[in-house]
Structures are given as C-alpha cells and as structure tokens.
Amino acid sequence: MAIRLGDTAPDFTAETTEGTLRFHEYLGDSWGILFSHPKDFTPVCTTELGQVAKLKDQFAARNVKVIGLSVDPVDDHHKWAADIEETQGAALNYPLIGDPDRKISDAYDMIHPNANNTLTVRSVFIIGPDKKVKLTLTYPASTGRNFDEILRVVDSLQLTANHSVATPVNWKDGEDVIIAPSVSNEQAAERFPGYQTIKPYLRVTKQPK
Ligand code: BEZ
Questions:
Q1: Which end of the chain is more exposed for a tag (fewer CB within 10 A), N or C?
Q2: Where are the beta strands (DSSP E) in 91-170?
Q3: At what angle do helices 43-54 and 147-163 cross, to 10 degrees?
C-alpha cells in the first residue's frame, strides 16, 4: 500500500551503518528525510550519498535527520563507504539502513516491480516532527536526485508549519511568500503588516524570518 501525504511514517527497527535503531526514536523531535537508493557500488548512488554527506550542515541548520536505505546488507554499505569518501570527498555521516529482507522497503512501497522487482527505486520521504509524511518523491534508478530541491521543500514546509504561509512557483529562500487562505485578512494585517493583495485569494508578503 502506497504511503500518502499526511500518513504516519511507518516505524521500524533497522540494522544500519551506525548500529541498530528504531526509526521514530532516531528522529526524536527533528524533521526527517528517509531516502532509498537502488544498489551499493553503483555510480549514480555513489554521487548521491556523497552529496548528502556534504550537506550535513544544511540539514542540521533545519533540524533535519537524514537516513538512507537499500536492500543491500550493512556489511556492503561499510565496504562501499570507503569508495564514497575516496571519490566524492565526503565520508558518510548519517546512517544507511541495510534491508536485505525488504521489510522496510515493502512498508514504504520502495520496490516498484514493473521498474525492477528486486531493487528499491529512488524514493524520498520528508517526515515532520509529528511523524507525518509531508512529501513523497520517486525517481528512476538512472536519474540522480537534486538534494538542493529537497532542501528547498524542507524550507517551504517549515515556513508553512511555523508561519501559515505557502510558497509560489519556483520560490527560493528569501523571496516573497503567499499567505495561506486559512488566514483571514484581519489576522494577515496583524501577522504580516504591509502585505499585498493581488487578488482576494492571492496575498503576498515578505518571507517571515
Ligand atoms: C546507479 O546508481 O548508478 C544505478 C543503480 C541501479 C541501476 C542503475 C543505476
């Protein structure tokens, strides 16, 4: 069964490169990003995992904990880690789950049999501190993901959670945002002084801090 936005992210116990962990406990009060990669010792995955390691400070600044997964065993992850460090110039600094029995991959519907019936696709789940799924994304094995885009979505989600604003098309950090329709004009005047009404349903304001 596919996981949908608003669902509670399934909890699990997993063997990882940082030992055995319970997923919800690992996340604690943080935001979370769970992402799968198809296979160890493969080129696109090597670049992705190195890039995620390089973004450590960006994730920390947003209170995000990252965790990767593939159906390969943890022993293979450990062996591959040396290649990631050597070729990408960044050592793994987040746990990688080994899921050879596919328990977690199946719970998150990460294996799409018509694409490949044994390997996980490139899934991403952004999970809020309430453990609800806020974003799902699926890429094919041949296309590396854009983790700058994933950070951009985290920024948007956190603005919505903290300030009742939404973000327009192609929005980037620092640009104007949209006041959520659930905010009345009276509330908007109080919370976003100087906001602009372009249409009654399209009200924009400076990005809250
Ligand atoms: C890769 O990471 O390069 C890859 C993995 C599985 C299938 C195709 C490409």
A1: C
A2: 96-98, 122-127, 133-139, 165-166
A3: 40
AA identity, residue 138:
T
* Token output for 35: 């992402």
Q: Which of 1, 25, 9, 47 is nearest to 124 (CA)?
A: 9
Atom number of ligand 1 nearest to Cα 43: 3
Our separate counts of H helices and E strands in the chain read 7, 11
68 pocket-lining for ligand 1 (C-beta < 6 Å): no
Give the model's pLDDT for residue 209: 86
144 touches ligand 1 (CB under 6 Å): no
CA-nearest of 83, 16, 99 to 50 is 83
**Residue 55 a catalytic site member:** no
| Global confidence as pTM | 0.97
